[in-house]
Amino acid sequence: MEGVTTRRRLLGGAVGLLAALLSACVHYTPRPRPPERIAVGFTQRTLSDPQLRALLERQLPARAWPRPQWDRADLLVAMLYFNDGLAAGRASARVATAGTRTAREHPNPTVTLMSEYANQHDGAPLWLWAVVTDWLLDAGARRGARIALADLAAQRAGYDLAELTWKQRGALRRAAADLLITEREIALRETVNTDRQAQLDMARRRLEVGAASRGDLDRLVRDALQDEQQLHDARRRASLARSALAVAVGVPVKVLAGLKLGWEQLDDPPAVDALQLERARDEALLARADVHGAVVAYGTAEQALRLEVARQYPEVHLGPAYTWDHGIRRYQFNLGLTLPLMNRNAGAIGEAEARREEAGAHLEATVALAWQEIDEAIRQWQLARARLTEVRGPVYDAAQRIYAQTARGFDAGANDRTELVAARVAHTLAELQVLDAVRTAQEALATLEDALRRPLEGPELTLTATLAPASVSNDGVTR
Question: 441-472 burial by CB neighbour count: b if 16+ within 10 A, else e?
Fold first, then answer.
């Protein structure tokens, strides 16, 4: 009778424990994402999205809606809202953050319910019951190293997200500048193309009356063909720039059709004084996400080595047990150890030491490369600024002056149309040369900002904090 009561108690306790465990479980909720629905959702994105408007009003208050024009700050907020690459990066960061909780959880014990049927000496049947548990002692260096590795992985994911955000911002800036400059280039080249056609028509008429040579006409034809090819190339580059801008923002290209872009000081990038550059260089070496990522990678290698060193010592398992045998209750206390007889984890320790050396070398290389990138970016920026000043010098002034004088002479009847068109072509070509210098200066400034990992001018300065990983939160930029 006592055996039956004991079995009932064991069964009732097991059922109660199982029910308690099941009640605390998280239930699975399916969230299917069919590709066709994702495609439809992408094609329906628009810059008039109500949630995007709310985000813009929080980040950039006191601005008109709808926007008469979109500047880089507006586009940056839209990028943080729409860009799918950043959404994937934020998801990866959340995975790493979730791993810190997992690392801190203690391992669950195992429970084994044992039963045995036997016959007594007198032939009477008898059931034997036992409950055996196994508890892993999770403490010391192993647990500390595991938690530290998870924390470092979360930090690394945050720096990776910051680096990804900055790269996407750089792509956005370059695409917007390229599109604006190339559209202006197209307008200038269309003017040149029209004037070239006028020159050809006038040269043909002069050739017919013997006032021009065949060589003059051939030269004009060659120049006209070259200008047509350059116009075609400019239109192709404008299309590519518009597509690149759409990719950076995260919207279909059609959304940007008719969108007016604004960029103050596009033609005259502001100068950055030497002291500011030196200060920015020192700050960048301590603030660049790739440098921080390399530091975290070295810390991760350190903790990985610490974990492998801890693994050369035995794991300790405690196994309390209860047995009911012939009406006798027995309480057991088992101790389990992993004996390091075959190896002392020397191979894994050696690999971890080598990886730490590798991470240290990578850290030093990252810092050196960052310094070199900043140093070269400063030189290129200074050269681009000097080139922009030179291209607006005497030759440009002469082209403007000659065209103005020729236009006045044409109006007064002192110059013919041939001279006017030739002067206008020269003036437009000078404008194209200035525009090319502006493109070079903007690209050099973008490279300098990339090296320093910070915007140096423009409306984005009000959104510098937005580029930090902590501000890229679920309620701020996700859909």
Answer: bbbbbbbbbbbbbbbbebbbeebeebbebeeb
pTM of the shown model = 0.84
With beta carbons less than 8 A apart as the criterion, state whether 435 and 188 touch.
yes
Q: Where are the domains of the chain?
A: 51-108+158-313+342-466
Separation between Cα atoms, residue 477 and residue 78, nearest integer Å: 9
| φ/ψ bin of 323: left (φ > 0), alpha (ψ from -120 to 50), beta (otherwise) | beta
* Tokens, residue 254: 């059609």
Instruction: Name the nearest CA neighbour of 52 among 68, 65, 35.
Output: 65
CATH class belonging to 51-108+158-313+342-466? mainly alpha
Per-residue pLDDT tens digits for 236-287: 999 999 999 999 999 999 999 889 999 988 998 888 777 878 888 888 887 7
Instruction: Give the Cα-Cα-Cα angle 134, 99, 108 (nearest 5 degrees).
Output: 10
Q: d(Cα 409, Cα 411) in Å, to the nearest integer?
A: 5
